[in-house]
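Input record (one chain):
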Amino acid sequence: MALGSGAAKPATGLRLNVVPGGRLVKDTVWYRGIYAPVAWARLHELRETDMFPQQEVNSIEQMRAADSVLLLVDIQQRLAPALHEVESLVRNVAKLIEGARRLKVPLVATEHCASSIGQTLPDLRAQLTEDEIYGKRHFDACDEEAFRGRVSQIARRQWVLCGAEAHVCLLQTALGLRRLGAAVFVVADAAGSRTEANSRLGMERLRAAGCVIVSTEMVLFEWLQHADNPAFKEVLALIKQANDGL
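The corresponding structure, as predicted from the sequence alone:
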């Protein structure tokens, strides 16, 4: 249906709300399940327009290396020492990075106010390239234009998150990715907060928001899919190292 010259145009990615009989509801669009004013939809377009096909993530969806991105959230020099059980957290993050490399899973890392909190921990940063690291000032990385552009550019639906803090930046970034339509998996043994209580509450909130809570081993084995994967022996060695505390 063509709009009259004086009618408002819908925001990109939205469709006109046409009721039975073909009548256009004036100045509205069908926006995320509701009738919404065009002007309101435009204000929210950058944050709320789905970048991924509309498909709900659920507990039976498996992570696939070909569909995944690994996101490291704010594992920084002045924050990390205060995290609960930081040694095992960092060890698991390192294994995820190496597994992602071997299985060709793209990596993205964020650093929050790096001039104050410091850069990503040196041992982890050494496993990253500069163009994989995005600075931010918003707790939700999806509020940063450069990060949002990278999400769109990678165009993979499954985002596997690790890092800190589970109840602040990791939580808010996961919620932002969910709003963009992503399937979000949070690696519980590679994520944390300064206190165990806040970490636990963060995981509860993430689960309630539709994120799937997983472990490092779940991620690596699901990325592998089968024992005939060419990277199987190398990734299995990573898993055994994690189990042995090496």
